[in-house]
Structures are given as structure tokens and as C-alpha cells.
Amino acid sequence: MWVFHFSILQHIHLRYLLYKKDLLPKKLVHFLKEATKQNILESDGGSWRFRHRIIQDHLAKHWVVEYSTREEEAVQEI
């Protein structure tokens, strides 16, 4: 039972860290539901996926460029 509670704390902490680094919206479920209303995502219970592979690929490329730039800036600050 202790492991279950620890997993929840890890999940909450990870979401907080990603929010602080501007990598995840604070109200994630609201964001995902809104994207579903806009027909960007499809929802199947508790999981979401992109409706179109082209959008997913485009955002993945943007993510790699953006994230690598942030990593380089963080290393330069040190």
C-alpha cells in the first residue's frame, strides 16, 4: 500500500516540475478535453491520441528543436 501512495506523490511531483518548466499545462485534463473538442485529439476513456499523424509528427519535430534549445541554454547557465 505504501508503494501505491509513493507512486501518486511521484506523479504529482513530476506534473509540478513539468508545469514549472513550462512543458505541461497546470490543468492537464482540461487542456486535453479542450483539444478533443477542437478535434485535435481523440479520447478513449482515460487516454488521448492525435487524430492525424501529420499533426503528431509536426509537434514532435517542434518539441525536439525547442527542448534541445532549452537544454543548451541550461548548460550555458551552469
Structure in words:
The protein has 78 residues and is mostly helical. It has a domain of 54 residues. Helix content is 69%, strand content 10%. It has a two-stranded antiparallel ribbon with strand order 1-2. A hairpin with a 2-residue loop joins strand 1 and strand 2. The relative contact order is 0.06.
Instruction: Tell me the β content.
Output: 5-15%
Series of secondary-structure elements, N-terminal to C-terminal: HHEEH
What are the segments in which pLDDT stays under 50 over at least 5 consecutive residues? none
Helix content: 55-70%
- Side by side, the strands of the main sheet go 1-2
Short characterization:
This protein has 78 residues and is mostly helical. The protein has helices spanning 2-20, 28-37, 53-77; strands at 41-44, 47-50.
Brief descriptors of the model:
78 residues; two-stranded antiparallel ribbon; 2 strands; globular
In terms of topology, how is this protein built?
Blueprint: H1 2-20, H2 28-37, E1 41-44, E2 47-50, H3 53-77
Antiparallel strand pairs: 1-2
